Q: What sequence folds into this?
């Protein structure tokens, strides 16, 4: 039994940490936050060259063929660096397309970083439950036509390809829509986390060819579910990297900041907050890496494992960020201090793919109705 | 990452399961250790340990030369988990996991020969005389005094919170032998016969009504000098060795016991009705029960991870403190959720064998015994995060 990263995974962790420390320092993050898209094409290319955009995709699709634990390792380092840009949209879209059709022509260019993706799932009623999707696609000669509005779409502003989740009658369907297609309009939504942008996407009589229907019915539902599990894992690992940054920087601050002639880290009230932060961070780590492992090794337990990780990490990440800010005092509350970057990203991640309350309700159905 | 067991670990587990199937005693309904139940509790404990001993399952972590199995940490975890699944009676754990390993580590040859066989067979039950009324979290300030008189120490003082003292045969007693030295330097560990004159034991009733632990009073108790474990005035390190053996137990069986408690609560939630529907359909309580499930699952995963680390490093680290802090507070949250599910039934001391009420009261001790939550947080902050000592 080995509940730890393998040697190659530790090497992957180190190279990701080194790359982001060098190429994505906090000043760079702040500059990108102030842009419309948070995309730096040089940095994006560097990440693409590592193969990390298709890390978990099959080698036949241009991916590295690695597993979910490896994906979590890289996502954790992205969270630790507050890596700005469209990773989430691209990795979600690639996972969804791959789950719907492993031979899709779109995968190779997404994996290579030549194109970027986004998944348009949520609508103005803001439900993460795919059963609540209302947007209707109507059948036309040779394809479909989509009209309606999607909200809270991560990274749509830089996406080349948008996977639109719609209904055909009462069946779920997945459509691959080029962002430049006629009738698609994309509008930025101002939100807390400026490192990963959100958009409103409106489809106005958008025509989709039959060959761009990725999946329908049960196949669409299953592919979407799998992709949301992987997306949740990525977001959890991102939160974990942020928690790790916060606990390290908070402990460091507590060792140096002096009040009453002593470092504040010598006060038990402060020590106990730091101890709780460590416990939450390490517990989230156990839940997340187990979920990553289960996604590959125990698919029958993956749904519960991912829900458990998302519930635990969503609450833990928020509390770690809160305690970190409390220990930092006034300086942690300022624009100037980098804690605010992690604080906001944590909150956005808590919401992404459903917060703890949403997943507790789902998990209760899974566990108690079984 | 590979969370599977090796073929030899699987074989160990399967053999144990087969053995437990035909040897685990029937469940005991009463949980009490006290009053008229004390003798019964002691008898069950002794009988069960004898059975384990005869099958080679007593002290499996001990080296083979001392009668153990030299089991790996993973095998020890499997053992604890299977015992918890089979809901077996308690064993004389203070001897097996705390005193025995310490005698093996620092005892004389004569001490090993005299004491180890009785610990394994369960013929001699041990207690641990550490805490005093004025030495709890600050154990090193203990005041029970031992004065040398010829070839004996003469002991006067008091211990408290001593589990099993009311039927123990022997005690690992920590005393002060040098009152002038700094507090950590004047301490000695003694192996004391509980049947000696000069010892009186008074059971200490907990608020649950049960009495797991006791006060022990020493009045001119005479202990021969060959009963010193380790060296005179160097007993603090011996005590720390004993306690680290206690914390190396990561709480593995607890996870199984807590999961069983949650399953019982869920069963009650299906049967009891509120707002015209089963309690299990109440959306607020569903949220809380789901969180209870999550907290237990994360505890299980933390345990597995700590075990994997322990198996590699061989030495119990501060993980023990994280585990203790986590399970004690988790259990307090979960017994409260159980009370909310049970509603008015939760207060009845005879509903479902009084399990809800008992667990609720007993859980308050969890964040105090074996190192308070405050001490665990101090340890985590200071030894893991490197913050300065605060006292």
A:
């Amino acid at each position: 039994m080995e509940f730890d990263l393998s040697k190659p995974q530790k090497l992957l962790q180190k190279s990701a940490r080194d790359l982001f420390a060098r190429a994505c320092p906090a000043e760079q993050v702040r500059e990108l936050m102030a842009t419309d898209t948070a995309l730096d094409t040089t940095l994006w290319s560097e990440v693409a060259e590592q193969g990390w955009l298709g890390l978990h995709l099959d080698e036949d699709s241009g991916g590295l063929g690695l597993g979910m634990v490896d994906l979590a390792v890289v996502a954790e380092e992205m969270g630790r660096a507050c890596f700005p840009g469209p990773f989430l949209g691209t990795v979600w879209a690639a996972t969804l397309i791959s789950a719907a059709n492993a031979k899709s022509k779109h995968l190779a260019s997404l994996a290579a970083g030549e194109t970027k993706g986004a998944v348009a799932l949520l609508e103005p009623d803001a439900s993460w439950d795919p059963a609540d999707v209302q947007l209707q696609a109507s059948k036309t000669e040779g394809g479909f036509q989509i009209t309606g509005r999607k909200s809270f779409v991560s990274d749509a502003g830089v996406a080349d390809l948008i996977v639109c989740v719609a209904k055909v009658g009462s069946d779920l369907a997945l459509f691959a829509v080029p962002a430049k297609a006629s009738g698609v309009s994309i509008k930025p939504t101002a939100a807390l986390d400026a490192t990963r942008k959100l958009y409103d996407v409106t489809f106005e009589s958008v025509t989709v060819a039959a060959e761009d229907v990725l999946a329908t019915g049960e196949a669409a539902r299953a592919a979407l579910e799998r992709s949301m599990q992987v997306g949740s894992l990525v977001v959890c690992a991102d939160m974990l990297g942020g928690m790790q940054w916060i606990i390290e920087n908070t402990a460091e601050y507590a060792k140096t900041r002096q009040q009453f002639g002593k470092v504040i880290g010598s006060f038990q009230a402060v020590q106990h907050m730091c101890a709780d932060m460590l416990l939450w961070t390490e517990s989230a780590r156990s839940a997340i890496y187990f979920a990553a492992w289960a996604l590959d090794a125990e698919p029958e337990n993956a749904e519960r494992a991912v829900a458990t990780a998302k519930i635990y990490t969503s609450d833990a990440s928020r509390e770690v960020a809160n305690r970190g800010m409390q220990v930092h005092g006034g300086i942690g509350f300022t624009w100037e201090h980098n804690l605010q970057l992690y604080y906001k990203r944590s909150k956005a991640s808590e919401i992404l793919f459903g917060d703890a309350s949403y997943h507790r309700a789902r998990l209760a159905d899974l566990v108690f109705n079984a | 990452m590979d969370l599977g067991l090796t073929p030899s670990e699987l074989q160990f587990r399967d053999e144990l399961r087969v053995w437990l199937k035909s040897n685990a005693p029937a469940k005991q309904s009463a949980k009490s250790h006290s009053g008229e139940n004390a003798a019964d509790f002691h008898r069950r404990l002794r009988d069960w340990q004898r059975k384990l001993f005869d099958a080679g399952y007593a002290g499996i972590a001990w080296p083979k030369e001392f009668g153990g199995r030299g089991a790996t940490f993973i095998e020890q975890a499997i053992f604890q988990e299977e015992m918890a699944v089979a809901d077996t009676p308690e064993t004389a754990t203070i001897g097996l996991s705390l005193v025995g390993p310490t005698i093996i580590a620092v005892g004389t040859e004569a001490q090993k020969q005299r004491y180890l066989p009785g610990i394994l067979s369960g013929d001699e039950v041990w207690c641990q005389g550490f805490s005093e009324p004025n030495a709890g979290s600050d154990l090193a300030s203990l005041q029970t005094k031992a004065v040398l008189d010829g070839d004996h120490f003469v002991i006067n003082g008091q211990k408290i919170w001593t589990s099993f003292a009311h039927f123990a045969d022997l005690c690992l007693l920590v005393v002060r032998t040098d009152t002038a030295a700094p507090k950590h330097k004047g301490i000695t560990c003694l192996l004391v016969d509980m049947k000696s004159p000069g010892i009186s034991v008074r059971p200490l009733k907990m608020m649950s009504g049960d009495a797991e632990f006791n006060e022990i009073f020493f009045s001119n108790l005479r202990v021969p000098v060959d009963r010193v474990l380790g060296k005179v005035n160097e007993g603090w390190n011996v005590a720390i060795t004993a306690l680290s053996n206690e914390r190396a137990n990561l709480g593995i069986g607890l996870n199984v016991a807590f999961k069983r408690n949650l399953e019982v609560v869920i069963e009650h939630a299906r049967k009891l009705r509120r707002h015209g529907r089963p309690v299990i359909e109440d959306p607020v309580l569903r949220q809380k029960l789901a969180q209870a499930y999550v907290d237990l699952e994360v505890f299980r995963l933390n345990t597995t991870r700590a075990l994997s680390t322990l198996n590699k490093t061989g030495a119990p680290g501060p993980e023990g403190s994280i585990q203790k802090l986590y399970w004690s507070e988790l259990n307090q949250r979960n017994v409260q959720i159980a009370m909310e599910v049970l509603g008015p039934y939760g207060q009845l001391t005879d509903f479902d064998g009084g399990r809800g009420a008992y667990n609720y009261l007993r859980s308050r001790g969890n964040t105090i015994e074996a190192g308070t939550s405050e001490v665990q947080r101090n340890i985590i902050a200071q030894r893991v995060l490197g913050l300065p000592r605060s006292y």
Chain B touches chain A through 48 residues (CB under 8 Å). The first strand of chain B starts at residue 126 and ends at 129. Residues 309 and 316 of chain B are 9 Å apart (CA to CA). Residues 126-235 of chain B form a domain with the Butyryl-CoA Dehydrogenase, subunit A; domain 2 fold (CATH 2.40.110.10).
